[in-house]
């Protein structure tokens, strides 16, 4: 590479960079050269950062925090400081206290929830035409057999089977069998 002021002289890249750096330090930056202005601002900012941190609010805050922590570590307290409590401790009761009565309390919470018990004699499928042909006195054949136990459903889920009884002129159901979970799945498939 050659110096533009001296075209017949060869200059290495390192020499060229050193010469340009030296020249930029001694010559004032031209107002029409934005690169020179930006470089000057950057050098000034780097020099300020290397100097003092008086203008840096983060440095001041960190120094203040370190001073407070150091003072807290050096000052022995005669009484241990209380453990911090969350807002949840003040509002909600702890769940681990009273484990013995926990099961009874949990059951008490659900005892008053209403459920719908249904006794099903049987089922059948009808077409719309058959449905429209129904009149008073029509007989609809169900899939349940006479004498077969009836299904007892709680909220639509089969839980037991039983037989019909009459109690004080009202129908009732006597539970004859509680359905196991595997039997419930089989009954759902029919």
TrEMBL record:
GO terms for molecular function: cytoskeletal motor activity. One of its GO terms (cellular component) is plasma membrane. The keyword Cell membrane applies. InterPro entries: FliN (IPR012826), FliN-like_C (IPR001543), FliN/MopA/SpaO (IPR051469), FliN_T3SS_HrcQb (IPR001172), SpoA-like_sf (IPR036429). Residues 36-49, 59-86 have a biased composition (Low complexity). The keyword Mitochondrion does not apply. It is a peripheral membrane protein. This is Flagellar motor switch protein FliN. It comes from Billgrantia pellis. The gene is fliN.
């Amino acid at each position: 590479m050659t110096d533009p002021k001296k075209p017949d002289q060869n200059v290495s890249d390192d020499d060229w960079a050193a010469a340009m750096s030296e020249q930029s330090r001694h010559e004032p930056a031209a107002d029409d050269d934005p690169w020179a202005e930006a470089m000057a601002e950057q050098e000034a900012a780097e020099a300020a950062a290397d100097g003092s941190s008086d203008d840096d609010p983060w440095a001041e805050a960190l120094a203040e925090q370190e001073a407070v922590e150091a003072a807290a570590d050096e000052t022995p307290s005669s009484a241990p400081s209380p453990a911090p409590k969350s807002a949840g401790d003040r509002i909600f009761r702890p769940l681990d206290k009273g484990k013995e009565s926990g099961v009874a309390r949990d059951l008490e919470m659900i005892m008053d929830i209403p459920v719908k018990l249904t006794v099903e004699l049987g089922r059948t499928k009808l077409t719309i035409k058959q449905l429209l042909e129904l009149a008073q006195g029509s007989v609809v054949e169900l899939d349940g057999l006479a004498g077969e136990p009836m299904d007892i459903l709680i909220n639509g889920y089969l839980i037991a089977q039983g037989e019909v009884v009459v109690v004080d002129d009202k129908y009732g159901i006597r539970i004859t069998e509680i359905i196991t979970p595997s039997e419930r799945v089989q009954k759902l498939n029919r």
